[in-house]
Amino acid sequence: MRIRLSKVFRFRRKVNRKYKDVLFRFIFRDKKDLLSLYNAINGTDYKNPEELEINTLENVIYMKMKNDLSFLVGASMNLYEHQSTWNPNMPLRGLFYFAELYERYINGQGYRLTGSTRIPLPFPNYIVFYNGLEWEAERTELALSEAFEEQREGLRPALECRATILNINSGHNRELMEKCRRLHEYAEFIQRIRDNLQKGMALEKAVEKSIEYCLAHGILADILRKCQMEVQNMLLEEYDEKAEREYLRKESLEEGIKRGIEQGIKQGIEQGIEQGIRQGVIQGRQQGIALGSFEVLAKFVKAGIITIDQAKEHAGERKEEFILWYQKRENDKI
To answer: 168 and 306: one domain?
Structure first.
C-alpha cells in the first residue's frame, strides 16, 4: 500500500504548466553549481555532483508557486526557496513542501508506515534566499511555532518547521558570496539591473544593458551566452517594474534626507564652533578688561590711595566678582 501523506493536508493544487522558472532556479539547475551553493552554506566539501540527488517538486504547486529547488545529499533533505518579497509564512510553506518531499522519499525507498521498525529520515534543511527591495538582516530565523495563536509555557508544539532566511542582495553575506561564485554573480547581475532602472532606463533596456555588461565582464557569462533570450524573458516576466521604480524612488528620497540631516548636523556644529569662538573672544576681552581693572584697583588699595570699600564701589556691576578675586589674591599670598 502506497502512502499519501498529502491527503492529510489537502493542499494539492492543479498544475499550472505555463508557470515560468524563476531565474534563481534556472541558474542553479546544474548539479555542480547547486553543490557549490550547498558547500558554501554548510561548510562542507563535497566534490562529486553526482552525490546530489535533485527531487524538486515538478508536478505539485502550492499557493501558485513551484518549490524552487530541493535535493538530497549525504543524509540531508534540502529545500531551497528564492523570495523577492518578504514572507513571514515561509515555515508554513516549508511544512507543506517537506510533507510532499518525505512522502516521495518514503515511497521511493520502499518503506511502509505500518512497519514495526522506525523509518530513518534525512535531516531537513530549509534555506530561503531573499533579494527583495526592503532592507532585511543578513540572516533571519523563522519558526512555524511563532505563528501559533496559543503559546503554552513549558510545552513544545507537536509541529515545527524552521526557515533560515539569507539576504543575497549585492553587498550582503559577503563570506557566503566569496565561497559560491555563482551566487555572487547572480547578486551582481540583479544589482546591475536595479542600477540601470535607477538611471531611468525602461525595464527591457535595463535588462538588455545588464546582460551586455555581464557578458563583457564574465558575470554569468557561460549561462548568458547559451540562454540570453531565455534569461531575458524570465526577467521581464519576473520583474514588477512599477514596484521596483517606486522603491528606488523611495530609497533615493530616504538617502537624500539622511545625507541632508548629516550635512545639516555638520554645518550646525561648524557654525556652533564659530559662534562659540566669537562669543569666547568677546567674553575673553571683557574678562581681560575686568581683570586689568581689578589689578589697578588692588594696587591703589595697597598704596593707600583708596580703601577696599572704595575699590568695591569702583568695580561697579562686577563688585561681587572683584571681592572674590581680591580675596583669592590675598589668600594666595599667604
So the answer is: no
